[in-house]
Amino acid sequence: MTNEIVKTTNLHKIYDKNGAKPYEALKGISFTVKQGEFVGIMGASGSGKTTLLNIMATLDQPTSGTVQISGEDVTHLTSNQMADFRSRHLGFIFQDFNLLETLTTSENIALPLSLQNVKTSQIQPAVDKVAKQLGIDELLSKYPNQLSGGQKQRVAAARALVSNPSIIFGDEPTGALDSKNARELLDTMTSINKKGVSILLVTHDPFSASFCQRIMFIKDGKIGDELSAQGKSRNEFYQEILNKLGTFEQ
Amino acid sequence: MKFKISLAGLKARWKDYLVLFSGMLMTTAIFYMFEAVSTNNAFTTASRVGQNAKFVFIFGSVLLSLITIVYIFYANNFLMSMRKHDYGLFMMLGAKPSVISRLIMTETLIIGVGSTVIGIILGWGLTKGISGLLVSQLDITLTHFHALYVPAIRATFILFIILFLIAGSLNAITFFRTSALQLLKSQQQSDWKPAKKSILAIEALLGVALLAGGYYAMYDIEELKIMSIPIGLVTIVLGTYFVFNSFFIMLLTILQRSSIGKKGLNSFTIAQLKFRIKDYTKILSVVSLLFALALGAITVGIGFQQMAPKLAAGNSPYALALTNPTHKMRSMINNLDHATQTTYQQKVVGKTVYYRQQQLKAQPLKYAYFKSNDVAKAAVKSIGLNELRDPQSEEYLSAQRLQAPQFQSFQLKAVSDDNFNHIQAQPKQLLVVAVTDMNSQSKQLTKIFNLESQRTSSKYIEMLPGSFSIYQQVKGIFASVQFMGIFLGIAFLAMLASCLMFKILSGTTTDKRRFEMLNKIGTKKSALRHSIMIQVFGLFGLPAILGLIDVAFGLQMFEQSNMLYGSYQIFSWSAIAFVVLYLIYYGLTVLIYSRIVVPRTKVEK
């Protein structure tokens, strides 16, 4: 049990806006992510992958079913508890970086720690450490608009990592990057993962997905299929994903 | 069809439009309020001060028009930032730029005409309400003042429609030149670049030095005389600008580097505030200066009015001097609190008024004068018999002024009781009444004064003896100044605060993303709201604080040159009133801002 970082059980989400026809975005989703796993969730637009990510990230609540992260049921937390939980246990990397333009790189990375009221004297060493790990220690005093897209995304990754989260959620993190920078970021994520950090990546890009160890395909609110990279080279896995997408989307 | 699309656009985002619309209403209403006073020549020139103050109204009108222009352009930017995406979409779907331009024009004009018409109606109501309130509170009468005033309606309508036409055309041109793709992707990117440290430091120092120089110039008005006004004006305007542009930024940077700056959301809050202050330097400077002007005008207006008893006291030690008062007058005088009365016998023969020497010796007449040209410090002394023999002396002249108007040019003579008794004339009585607190006795004194006026021929009314007539004249003159000061002060402040409110609210589109990100990384909603409260407080508070300091030093000009006394007490009261009004705007801005940017549990992607 303890090595399960994420466990979702029979998740349902029904959008029932008054007046509109009720719409069921998730129809009973159950899966687990183990400690240290690099898992991808793939699916077309409207398949429910963003809804699923929002619920796992405690940004939204399911209509029924439960989500456990590090053994804690997060589905019935209050809004404040959710916020606390996010700052302590989850890291995020978004498609559009979401850095604050008015803060320096260093201040951006430090933000999750200040939110947890970590002592000032402990913040800077933690920031320096993660910056070094991601090779952005030269950029710490720069502002986001002085950075390239790839650098910005590495800063975002550092911000996600700095609080030693149980898991990092990546929401199309390579969406706004060119192929070279995307590749670099994925390599970075792989190396982070190799150090034991669990990652859950939501994407519709087969190339990004090919860096995962396991991929779940979601369609019409249900998990349809799963692929594992075990024993395959990344190229082979990429081909397999492409083939699967070809049949799965039909 | 296009009209329909425009209306649909309005309907779709009615909440944002409601904010915009209510702001516009306030602006129009306030502008109307001002115009109701300033375009009414009969009212403004009814008092002597009003005649001299004509330029104040012209200046005020220009200033308010400028603020209105700035305001409309801010509001218009807010409107356009909401519509860019929609119009981009229309263009993407094949709508011609000319069609889009017409759509924008229609939309801007619908909002413009609507808010102008309703705003004028609101302004009429506000003018009626506030003027009524002031009249009853200040116990004054306003002649020729009308809440519904056609020239004011005309001026307001013309200015606003012209402004909306310009705004609409500018919007249309902007869209005409922008490609659909740019519009669709028009998420405002702030290009925050930190200023160079050395320049920042120089500017900060310069700002503080200029302000200090300006304050000193106002303080040292006795030495600098009239020069202190232009010196103060230039240095304070420039100083305010640099203080916002650099000094506050520097302070915030220091705060950000300290351990406080690293706690919780503080680094974000301070950075946001820094960014905003830099971005809003001009408007914050204007707000600060006008805040000071409005508050200063109110304080000085009230201050002058409160000088009335002091001015009166230096003019005569007696509130009233009545020759042969009627029975009714006597009984009313007996009802006055803390009043002393003295009666002198007199006889008038030819062009001479005779008094009993004995009586004048036993209870001398008193004479009041200002100590060394100081209008607030009156002194009183007794008039000796010797002085009464010298027609050139101040004392003699002052005793002369106590006579009934028709005798004021007559010669005064003190004679022995024997001589007095032998004078063949009807004996008369001169009753002089002194009160310790003219303000509190003002109602009763007015009644007696009116009785005296009734039995005096109209050509002599202005010459009625006693300080109460001076008191009434001063009150009369400055009551309208005070009224205008308060009325326009409120109008200015409300306008400035709504201007600031809009400028802040128009930044919500960019902030929304920041707050969503903060929510995602686990910031509590209470922390987000707290951050908003501090940010908005900084933007409202800093100009207000600077404005208050401006007034505090500005009043020194009046105090040092002995024109006003005790103005700081009035200042503290009017400052409290200002701050309360300002706080309402602050609260409103925080509320609307939070509603727009603090994400709900479900975060939109």
Layout of secondary structure:
The complex is a heterodimer of chains A (250) and B (605).
Chain A: E1 4-15, E2 23-34, E3 38-42, H1 49-56, E4 64-69, E5 72-73, H2 79-89, E6 90-93, H3 105-115, H4 120-133, H5 149-161, E7 167-171, H6 179-194, E8 198-203, H7 206-209, E9 214-219, E10 222-228, H8 234-248
Parallel strand pairs in A: 3-8, 3-9, 6-7, 7-8
Antiparallel strand pairs in A: 1-2, 1-4, 4-5, 9-10
Helix pairs in contact in A: 3-4, 3-5, 5-6
Chain B: H1 2-12, H2 14-38, H3 41-44, H4 48-52, H5 54-92, H6 97-138, H7 150-177, H8 180-184, H9 197-219, H10 221-224, H11 228-257, H12 266-279, H13 281-306, H14 308-315, E1 320-323, H15 327-334, E2 339-349, E3 352-356, H16 357-362, E4 366-370, E5 378-382, H17 385-388, H18 394-400, E6 411-415, H19 417-422, E7 428-435, H20 438-454, H21 467-505, H22 508-520, H23 525-560, H24 567-597
Parallel strand pairs in B: 3-6
Antiparallel strand pairs in B: 1-7, 2-3, 2-7, 4-5
What can you see in these coordinates?
The complex is a heterodimer of chains A (250) and B (605). By secondary structure, chain A is α/β, with parallel strands linked by helices. Chain A has a single domain, classed as 3-Layer(aba) Sandwich (Rossmann fold), CATH 3.40.50. Helices cover 37% and strands 26% of the residues of chain A. Chain A is built from eight helices and ten strands. A six-stranded mixed beta sheet of chain A has the order 6-7-8-3-9-10, sandwiched between helices. A four-stranded antiparallel beta sheet of chain A has the order 2-1-4-5, covered by helices on one side. The model of chain A has no long low-confidence stretch (mean pLDDT 87). Chain B has 605 residues and is α+β, with helices and mostly antiparallel strands. Chain B has three domains: 1-188, no CATH class; 202-311 and 480-605, no CATH class; 317-465, no CATH class. Chain B has helices spanning 2-12, 14-38, 41-44, 48-52, 54-92, 97-138, 150-177, 180-184, 197-219, 221-224, 228-257, 266-279, 281-306, 308-315, 327-334, 357-362, 385-388, 394-400, 417-422, 438-454, 467-505, 508-520, 525-560, 567-597; strands at 320-323, 339-349, 352-356, 366-370, 378-382, 411-415, 428-435. In chain B, the strands form two sheets. In chain B, strands 1-7-2-3-6 form a five-stranded mixed beta sheet, with helices on both faces. The radius of gyration of chain B is 32 Å and the shape is elongated. Classes of the chains: A alpha/beta (250), B alpha+beta (605).
